[in-house]
Amino acid sequence: MRNKIAVLMGGMSAEREISLVSGQAVLKALKELGYDSFGIDVSPDLPFELLEAKPDAAFIALHGRGGEDGTVQGLLEIMRIPYTGCGVFSSAATMDKVVTKTILKGHDIPVIDDVVARKEDDLSEVLEEVNERLSYPVMVKPAREGSSIGVTKVNSEWGMHDALDEVFRRDDKALIERYVDGRLITVGIIGTEPTVLPVLEIRVKDGFYDYQAKYERGRAQYEVPAKISEEISEYARKVALSSFKALECEGVARIDMIYEENNDTLAVLEINTVPGMTETSLLPKAARALGLTFTDVVEIILKSARLKIENQTFCLSRLS
Ligand SMILES: Nc1ncnc2c1ncn2[C@@H]1O[C@H](COP(=O)(O)OP(=O)(O)O)[C@@H](O)[C@H]1O
Ligand SMILES: [Mg+2]
Predict the structure, then answer these.
(1) Cα of 216 from ligand 1 centre, angstroms
(2) Closest CA to 87 of 77, 78, 96
(3) 246: domain range?
(4) Which one of the listed residues 15, 56, 114, 201 is annotated catalytic?
């Protein structure tokens, strides 16, 4: 009997459209591999659809809140359906950049200096703290969002009101970070025995790696392996694996970092536990440098599927 795999995609987050593209690409790969796979566009009916379909495992292709954040993972634990990637705690913690950075700091992993602001905070007090602890420009972003949605580069105090407004329409917690004029790199990690992929560098023509640069063709260029020294590359991969372990990730994650060449420092920006999974997404691109096809990556991630709380794995079988 071949395994029945449900690919969970879509959902209600701001990254719904991207998740649908990831989900379709994963579904196609699973079909090519011979699995009895089908897609579910996640809605409040998800438990009923899962009860009816009775999949052997769920492949999570949901980005953002309501999917990458531990909620769906919790439901799958209760329904005893093994699922890919990170567990409940790890998904919830990494969804929140403030929580992630607190944990990373506790493990002596370098992060960027910041100020956290909440919706109910007094703006003048927030500005005072920013003036004391950081200097402009700063990056203002929602604590729990992805795809650069709601992220603004602010050059002076005058831009802070609008940037925070942009965040508070989406989240009640804002992260204000020193703007680092460095090279943007990312490291993917896949598999039960984690394989750390080569470092990939993202080069954006102008501005930062915003939503348009992420999804419009030609707005950004990618280099893998990144043209950085062997030493920095090894260090970045080491920091990525330490971050993965610190947040108790498993199966798959992509760690975004910034490397400041002038003072030779590296800092972790964030951890994505359900990174983009189209053929041209960053993690599959980095895997290709190791000779792994998109389909190989999908199968490696699928093999990570298990119930994390009871440590129950599921047996893989497919049409040979
Ligand atoms: N402190 C920072 N300094 C410089 N650029 C930043 C900083 N924080 C974020 N960025 C830019 O914004 C992009 C999105 O930020 P990130 O923290 O990765 O959030 P998201 O979850 O939206 O991807 C990054 O890829 C980078 O280009
Ligand atoms: Mg990012």
Answers:
(1) 17
(2) 77
(3) 93-110+180-300
(4) 15
